[in-house]
Write a structure and sequence with these properties.
The protein is built from three helices and two strands, in the order H-H-H-E-E. With 67 residues, it is mainly alpha-helical. The protein has one domain. A two-stranded antiparallel sheet has the order 1-2. A hairpin with a 5-residue loop joins strand 1 and strand 2. The longest helix is centred in the N-terminal third of the chain and has 14 residues. It is globular. The N and C termini lie far apart (29 Å).
Length: 67
């Protein structure tokens, strides 16, 4: 499992800098599909990773999700 910080960095590159998920994946050594899943989860919840209890942690810049 990847850390919340690792996921947040990948999501930031995709969201804030408009870098394609495939490119972000190559930079971080994960698949583009993985980056897309992380981003989809971030957009829907405002969090980057669920914790073990089922709630979520590391709520980063939830206002970025607002449309």
């Amino acid at each position: 499992m990847y850390s919340a910080t690792f996921r947040w960095r990948a999501i930031t590159l995709h969201y804030a800098y408009s870098i394609a998920c495939e490119q972000v994946g190559r930079i971080f050594g994960v698949s583009g599909r993985t980056v897309r899943r992380w981003y989809k989860y971030f957009k829907s919840s405002g969090h980057v990773i669920p914790d073990k209890s089922g709630s979520t942690t590391l709520n980063c810049c939830h206002s970025m999700v607002a449309t």
